[in-house]
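Entry 0007
Protein: Tetraketide alpha-pyrone reductase 1
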Amino acid sequence: MVQSELIDPAVKGTLNVLRSCAKAPSVKRVVITASISSVMCHRKPLTPEVVLDETWFSDTVRCEELKVSIGHIL
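Output (structure tokens):
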């Protein structure tokens, strides 16, 4: 049940995105995270101009300040 309802659709969706990115010459890199929790807890404001890339990962110190654990964000 978990495989067919959660894992398979996630893998299929990820592969679809990667295939689309591979076709677009303007795409320079793709950052795949395990979940939104990877980028949710940050000190910088998230504005429309912000590009979420490998430099935009959750700040562990900030998570501790907010008493947020990565497992409890979702």
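Curator remark: Residues 1-72 form one domain. The chain has one domain: 1-72.
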